[in-house]
Design a protein that fits this description.
heterodimer; A: Proliferating Cell Nuclear Antigen; 2 domains; 5-stranded antiparallel sheet; 35% strand; B: mainly beta; 18 strands; Checkpoint protein (chain A); nucleus (chain A); HUS1/Mec3 (chain A); HUS1 (chain A); DNA damage (chain B)
């Protein structure tokens, strides 16, 4: 049911073409050495990014890594920083782009840091320009390209992601500044972190009503900072804040379970929420971790990407709390394997796992 | 309080409510500071919450048993315990889901004398809370409100207008004088500090604002602005929307009593008849009372 098949993310090796003698043509616009990226955003791609994913990812953090490979486009938050919420949004290139061309000396992988809000703004305003000038055979196409330009008042050319809408009569160009593309070593570090982040928890429970959960957690923030999260093989999810003055929590039962599951012993069914949770943990049927309530609330902002549901699980050895958002193909209940989004929350205390 | 070893003691109180937002509104009315300790008093008539600023200001919220769907009282006497008001309100707020009615059960005491709350409207999802309580260490100052004379000195004014007047009186930065006089029947609020501000409510001129008035002689007392302000600063918007009035009474020695009515509407029972505008069944109202001590007789302006 999931598309976290590791083989999807292996990149086959290419041999890079030999550099030509005239490596640096004298043009005012050049691309970073050896790197090329150009693609056209499809209408589907624009909708996915502008209306759904970029608003959600903006909440995860201002800056993210944009990681482009031969087959995939990824938006990665905090993968190299262990203290923050990590978020990984992956798209197969066909989900976003037409005519996707990428090449680099690092196995055709390119990664750089970018401000999500600037990306969002560029796409938003390109869209409004596009719709202004109509559609049809000469319809505007939104091209994204990696370039190096000399900005005004600068002596050094800087890298940009350029958005170009070429219409019948006019063209609009927007440059989104990006960081220097990551070196080979840095990309390796990123890819390694990405591989580690694909570890699936053994038990996942499905939460259908993210709004309800978000409402609750937003109010919990007033009460305390540390959130205990417990997940059982019976399909129970507990979120609870405990301070010296108050214990306040919510229990969601009979959730759909993916992975390891078992039935709740009958004698437990009528006990209080907290007692049930403690007993399940002592039997090894549940795991519990503690996370920062603000991180939990932040990850819930991913509902802006309009997932169909979310799955919560605790990674092996309580390494982190994982939430995986699932997207169905429009009009069906089949998983759309071309899109994925998941978050990993750092754990503050191993709890009992 | 006899119990056999095998039998658990019945709790002092088990009650259920389906109007959490209304209860939150009522309790918020008496939140004038970030950290306030409240005392809850349980009786067969309902629950009373008391907060005070020692010696100067006291507020009470009466949640009578008719506000609850279920109210099972099993205590001997009237248990009293202390909780943090802010924590109680923030906690109740988590149960209140916009657009949905939520049924909550409240129980006291828990195994460790906690106040226990849990939502009971769904089998598969539930919110629960345990709030630690304290033994209240100070006896609530008995404000012992007594009428000023044979004729009460009181007036009822639109809550919205009262709040606005008190908000405006912040400007002079002085204590506030409240004066009632029988001829012409009127109430005057006055502040003299950085500039003067006087606000008059004339009884006959505008019965929309001043709804009732009773006074047989001129009286005037001064009250510290911040305490007067506390009586209106957190009036819930439902009170303003419902166009309610607040009653102010001056008792013996100048003690001021301010009373508000907060709607705590119950959503679960559909009524066969449409209530006429403004009429609320008594079971839907929480009563709030503030007591403000007057300043000593001197004319000097403080603060």
């Amino acid at each position: 049911m999931f598309c976290f098949n590791k083989t999807e993310f292996y990149i086959s090796r290419f041999t890079s073409p030999k550099p030509s003698k005239f490596q640096f043509p004298l043009r005012s616009q050049t691309r970073p050495r050896g790197m090329k990226f150009k693609a056209y955003l499809t209408e589907n791609g624009v909708n996915l990014l502008e209306k759904r994913f970029l608003p959600a990812l903006d909440k995860m953090g201002k800056i993210c890594h944009l990681y482009l490979t031969r087959d995939h486009t990824m938006f990665l938050h905090n993968l190299l920083n262990g203290d923050e919420v990590q978020s990984i949004a992956q798209f197969r290139k066909e989900a976003l782009f037409d005519d996707y061309r990428i090449s680099s000396q690092n196995e055709n992988r390119i990664a750089f840091a970018v401000d999500i809000s600037l990306l969002h703004r560029a796409i938003r305003s390109s869209v409004s320009i596009c719709t202004e000038f109509g559609s049809g055979p000469t319809q505007n196409r939104l091209q994204i390209k990696l370039v190096k330009k000399l900005p005004p008042n600068c002596t050094q050319p800087m890298p940009f992601l350029t958005f170009e809408t070429k219409g019948y009569k006019s063209a609009v160009i927007q440059d989104v500044p990006i960081s220097k593309p990551l070196s080979r070593d840095q990309v390796l570090e990123l890819q390694t972190a990405l591989d580690m982040a694909q570890d699936l928890p053994q038990t996942l429970v499905q939460v259908q009503d993210l709004n309800q959960l978000q409402n609750f957690v937003d109010r919990l923030k007033h009460v305390g900072d540390l959130l205990d999260v417990s997940i059982s093989k019976y399909g129970d999810l507990y979120v609870q804040i405990s301070t010296t003055l108050i214990t306040l929590g919510a229990e969601f039962r009979k959730l759909l379970v993916i992975g390891e599951q078992s039935d709740e012993p009958a004698e437990d069914r009528n006990l209080s929420a907290q007692t049930r949770s403690v007993r399940a943990i002592s039997r090894g049927d549940a795991q519990s971790v503690q996370v920062n309530v603000k991180h939990f609330a932040k990850s819930l902002h991913c509902h802006l990407a309009k997932p169909d549901c979310a799955f919560y699980g605790i990674a092996p050895q309580g390494a982190c709390l994982t939430v995986i958002f699932q997207f169905f193909i429009a009009g069906s209940r089949q998983t759309d394997k071309s899109i994925s989004l998941h978050c990993r929350l750092p754990v503050l205390d191993p709890g009992s796992s | 309080m006899s119990s056999s070893a095998t039998e658990a003691e019945a709790p002092d109180l088990v009650c259920q409510m389906d109007n959490v937002q209304g209860i939150v509104d009522a309790l918020t009315t008496v939140r004038w500071k970030r950290h306030q300790d409240a005392v809850l008093e349980l009786s067969e008539h309902g629950v009373v919450l008391i907060v005070e600023e020692t010696g100067c200001l006291q507020a009470k919220v009466y949640l009578q048993r008719e506000l609850f769907i279920r109210y099972e009282y099993g205590a001997q006497g009237r248990p009293r315990f202390g909780v943090s008001l802010g924590l109680l309100v923030d906690c109740l707020n988590t149960f209140s889901v916009p657009g949905r009615s939520s049924m909550i059960e409240m129980r006291y005491p828990g195994p460790d004398m906690q106040l226990l709350l849990k939502s009971v409207d769904s089998l598969d999802a539930c919110i629960y809370a345990e709030i630690r309580t304290r033994i209240p260490d100070t006896i609530s100052w008995d404000y012992n409100f007594e009428p000023a004379g044979s004729t009460p000195l009181s007036f009822t004014v639109k809550s919205a207008a009262l709040k606005e007047a008190i908000d405006d009186l912040e400007w002079p930065g002085s204590s506030i004088q409240i004066m009632l006089q029988p001829v012409p029947p009127s109430v005057t609020f006055r502040g003299e500090g950085h500039g003067d501000l006087q606000i008059d409510f004339m009884y006959y001129a505008n019965t929309d604002l001043l709804i009732a008035f009773s006074c047989d002689r001129q009286v005037s007392y001064r009250y510290k602005y911040k305490f007067l302000r506390a009586t209106t600063s957190n009036i819930p918007s439902s009170v303003i929307k419902d166009n309610r009035g607040s009653k102010l009474t001056i008792g013996r020695g100048g003690m001021l009593k301010v009373q508000h009515l907060v709607s705590v509407s119950r959503q679960s029972i559909p009524h066969p008849h449409i209530d006429s505008a403004g009429y609320q069944q008594p079971s839907r109202i929480a009563y709030i009372e503030f007591f403000v001590k007057p300043e000593e007789d001197e004319d000097t302006v403080n603060d």
